[in-house]
Task: structure prediction
Amino acid sequence: MRSSIHEVIITLSEAAALVLLVVFVFLQSWRATLIPIIAVPVSLIGAFGGLMLFGFTLNTLTLFAIVLATGIVVDDAIVVLENVERLMAEKKLSPKQAAIESMREVTGAIIAIELVLVSVFVPVAFLGGLAGKLYQQFAVTVATAVTISGLVALTLTPAMCALLLKPQHIENRLFRPFNRGFAWITRTYLGGVRLTVRHAVIAVLIFVAILGTDALLFRIVPSGFVPSEDQGYLLGSLTLPDAATLQRTQEAGAMVQRVVLEHPAVEHVFVVSGLDVIAGANKTNAATIFIPLKPWDDRKTNAEEMAKYVIAQGAKLSQATLLAFNPASIRGLGSAGGFEVYLQDRADADPQKLYQNLQPFLDALRKRQELTGIASFYRPTSPQLYVDVDREKTAALGVPLQDVFDALQSTMGVLYVNDFNKFGHTYRVQLQAEGAYRSKPEDLGNIYVRSAGGDMIPVKALISVKSAIGPEQLDRFNGFLAAKVLGNSAPGVSSGQAIAAVEDVAKSLPPGYTIAWTGQAFQEKRIGTAAILAFVFAIVMVFLILSANYERWSLPAAVLLAVPFGLLGALTAVFLRDFSNDVYFQIGLLVLIGLAAKNAILIVEFAAQEQAKGLSPVDAALEAARLRFRPIVMTSLAFVLGVVPLVLASGAGAAARRSMGTGVFGGMLVATFVATIFIPLFFVLLTRGRAKPAAAPAGIEERIA
Result:
């Protein structure tokens, strides 16, 4: 955990540096760059206060939120600052006058953006279950940071613009190529906007195709819960034949320890004989092996490759089975990574019949190419001694039946007597014979019990012993006799595809037998509903908030139509990198909903203002696109480059960072450079006829061109 948090802090530093670089390149003034940069620490400190207020800790997920918030909180200050500089350049206003005029123009947009970003996360904060807890921590962190950044943009940022900015900005020769290149990009963008407005039917058909592509990608991209993480250690399970002695188990464990320690990536090997951590029981023929690996920077082998190496070494053992597991990505969700499923006997609860049906089920699972590492430790074949007490004879001799059972338990097992307190501690009193007197079957009954008449009766005279076989341990899941099955997905196969493969095999189970998921697989089955609810609530809340803000439905609809473009970019990015649709990716989609809507709001808000001045919807949309393209690109690039360290993450917790960062990175690129071409068209289509057409002010076509 410490290594993972350390890696996230490094990522946060890299993200802040990239955001600073983007702001400086676009603003080309250290004075101007200083203004939005001040907003970052103020907002992030406020986010920490929100975590304390809601009782959340500083963990990997909340630090992910801080990384993303670094690129988000700077947006509002950039919007204000860019508009102030534009007014000083175009209208020759002083910094103070430009700051006042800028706030008249952008206050509505900033308030709408803050409401949208907060409304996206507020509903998911009330979701239940494990997925809800993950969403809540992220939502609280981002929502708090965004709220404070909005207050800073409305108060501190314009004041600093009035104090720090200079009326005239002289272009530096170093930035001349960048300015020319961005001017060309702007002209190309405006040409694309005019093209979509003129050919509205074709543009709408393209948008419909994008919706269809989104639906197709949702079906193609495999589902998952959380990505498998290299946590710096492995769990091993060593199993010997039934009834193997503890001494044999210790010898096999020592052999495994010597072999595994030879690998250069292994730091230590710790063997606990007599403990089966997978089954959660004490067994003489089982051992649990803990394999801490060397730090991530000191080894080239990851945890998954190391687990394959350990299993390959275990295959060389003649009388033992050795398995190695990557621990569950979230502690408490199962004993090992991969999936855990129970085969339940709901018919007659017969351990032998359960075992007979378990073997074909395991064989069928091993034949599926999507699955690997299939194993089960349920074996009802352990040699046992069946002790039968002759109740009639016991009663005839006047021996209490309970005394016979207590004598057997205190001799061969452990008999609890009572507790007593001494020196401030509570101690348990238990009876148990010394090992030398309970090591052989002949020791059974070598003890006496007292009859009602005071005679001492040997227990051997009251019992009969015979050999038998049966299960060493019986598991019940949801009240039914069950056998746990462990497995993992094959390389390149998501956990969702592995779950589907197991369920497909389970269809051929005989009547009375079924499967029940537990651990990560159970949570993954549940999270599908939670994710759908989160997205629906987010869309509905954004629409309602914007409808209340604009007092009409058309402008919110134009804003929300930008969301499918973000989804297209996110799904395409994870598809190209062979990632899955997991929890972290879904959290990133929530961020995309808010950020895609933010870009659309900047255009729609200014288009509505221009339309209110008397421009036609087409001219208003074109003018808004010209005015808002630069701040949109600035804010989006600041966020996108801030996410790059997540996309290229390595080390502890890298899988989660890559999953979240990849989707957000791809989604924002498409939402910035593709969706903004269509947003003016949506505004025109949804507001046509709402304002009186008026002639465009002189020179508007020249400014757009």
About this structure: The radius of gyration is 34 Å. Residues 691-705 have pLDDT under 50 and may be disordered. The longest strand covers residues 281-292.
